[in-house]
Design a protein that fits this description.
CATH architecture of the largest domain: Orthogonal Bundle
Distance between the termini: 78 Å
Largest sheet: 4 strands, antiparallel
Strand content: 5-15%
CATH topology of the largest domain: Endonuclease III, domain 1
Number of domains: 2
Number of strands: 7
Helix content: 40-55%
Order of helices and strands: HHHHHHHHHHHEEEEEEEH
CATH superfamily of the largest domain: Hypothetical protein, domain 2
Radius of gyration: 24 Å
Length: 343
C-alpha cells in the first residue's frame, strides 16, 4: 500500500478522525502537560524500553530531586543511579547524567533545538531527538516507537519485519506521509495512544478503532512481523552474602551495573548449596543468580565496603540484588524471632 497514491483529502480525513478520538480518549500523561525541554527529555529517556505504567511514579520524583540540567549535572553518579533504581537499563541514567554536563558546559544550560545537535548528545538516537524536537520545540517531525510502528504496520499491511533495516525505513516513510505540517505533537501522541489503547499487540479492538476504514490489514493480529530472535543465552552468576555485626558486605560493580553496589562475587561454591536463587532477564541473557553464605573475608578489596541495614535504602542497588538481600535479611529476622518465641 502506498499512501502517496491516496488523495490529500483522504489523508486529511484520516488525521481528523484520529485527532477527534485522541481529544476524547487520549491518555493524560504528566510529560504531555509541559514543553520544558529538560522535563520532556527526562520522560523520553525513561520511556526508552520501559512501559508508561512503570515510568509514572519515577518521573515526578526525578523532577523533584533533579529539577533542571544544572542540578543533575552537579549530582554524584551514585545519587543519579539511586534515583533511577528500579527502571533498569542503567546506561540511560549514566547517559542522561553525561548529557546534562555537556548541556551546562557547551550549550549554556540550554538544550539544543536542532535535531542534528540533539543526536550528538549521549543516549539520543533518531526517535529521542525527534520526540524532543516535537514535544519541546513544536517541530513537525515523525515519530516511530513500538505503538506507532504497530499501528502503521497494520494500516499499510507492511510485510517486511519491522525490526529489519527495510522494515524500519518503510515504517518511517509512512510516518512521514501521515505527518501534518502543524500540530505534530498531538498527531504523534494520538498515534501512540491508538497503539497503546486500541491497536494493541494482542486482541486489537478493531470494532472501536476510529480509523478502521483506512486500515489495510486483513488479519491484524499477525502484524507487525518481526524477525525470529535467537533464544536468550543462559548465564549463571554466584555471589556471596556476608552478614557480620549487623552489616552487609557489598562491592561496587565495574560490569553491567557499573557504579552500583552488588553482593561480591562468591570465592568458592563447590562445598555448599545456595541460600537464595532467582532468574532474571538482562538484554539477550537469562541469568540465574545464586547467592551463597560466606564468612567475612580476611582482607577487603578496594571496591568492597560494609553497610548497615539502614544504609541500604540510600545506595544504588540493582533490583535482583536488592530483592535477594531483602529476602535473606527477612529470613534472618524470622529465625531470630522464632528463637525468642515462647515455647
Amino acid at each position: 500500500v502506498c499512501f502517496s497514491l491516496i488523495s490529500p483529502q483522504r489523508i486529511r480525513t484520516f488525521r481528523r478522525a484520529l485527532l477527534r478520538w485522541y481529544r476524547r480518549r487520549g491518555r493524560d500523561l504528566p510529560w504531555r502537560r509541559t514543553r520544558d525541554p529538560y522535563a520532556v527529555l527526562v520522560s523520553e529517556f525513561m520511556l526508552q524500553q520501559t512501559q508508561v505504567a512503570t515510568v509514572l511514579p519515577y518521573y515526578n520524583e526525578w523532577l523533584r530531586r533533579f529539577p533542571d540540567f544544572s542540578t543533575l549535572a552537579r549530582a554524584s553518579e551514585s545519587n543519579v543511579l539511586h534515583a533511577w533504581q528500579g527502571l533498569g537499563y542503567y546506561a540511560r541514567a549514566r547517559n542522561l547524567h553525561a548529557l546534562a554536563k555537556i548541556v551546562i558546559r557547551k550549550h549554556g544550560e540550554v538544550l539544543p533545538d536542532k535535531i542534528d545537535n540533539l543526536r550528538a548528545l549521549p543516549g539520543v538516537g533518531r526517535y529521542t531527538a525527534n520526540a524532543v524536537a516535537t514535544f519541546a520545540f513544536d517541530r513537525s517531525v515523525p515519530l516511530v516507537e513500538a505503538n506507532i510502528a504497530r499501528v502503521i504496520a497494520r494500516l499499510f499491511d507492511v510485510r517486511d519485519p519491522i525490526d529489519s533495516t527495510r522494515g524500519r525505513e518503510t515504517i518511517w516513510r509512512y510516518a512521514i506521509d501521515l505527518l501534518p505540517a502543524r500540530g505534530a505533537a498531538s498527531h504523534n501522541s494520538a498515534l501512540m495512544d491508538l497503539g497503546a489503547l486500541v491497536c494493541t499487540a494482542r486482541v486489537p479492538k478493531c470494532g472501536i478503532c476510529p480509523v478502521k476504514k483506512f486500515c489495510h490489514a486483513q488479519n491484524p493480529e499477525t502484524l507487525p512481523i518481526k524477525k525470529l530472535r535467537p533464544p536468550p543465552k543462559e548465564l549463571t552468576e554466584a555471589h556471596a552474602f556476608t552478614f557480620h555485626r549487623n552489616r552487609i558486605l557489598l562491592e561496587q560493580s565495574t560490569g553491567r551495573w557499573r557504579g552500583m553496589w552488588i553482593l561480591p562475587r562468591a570465592r568458592s561454591t563447590s562445598s555448599s548449596s545456595p541460600v537464595y536463587m532467582s532468574i532474571f532477564p538482562f538484554t539477550n541473557h537469562r541469568i540465574t543468580l545464586k547467592i551463597f553464605a560466606h564468612p567475612p573475608p580476611r582482607v577487603r578489596t578496594e571496591a568492597q565496603r560494609w553497610f548497615s541495614i539502614a544504609q541500604l535504602a540510600s545506595i544504588p542497588l540493582p533490583s535482583p540484588h536488592r530483592r535477594a538481600i531483602e529476602q535473606l535479611l527477612a529470613r534472618r529476622l524470622q529465625k531470630l524471632c522464632s528463637t525468642f518465641a515462647p515455647a
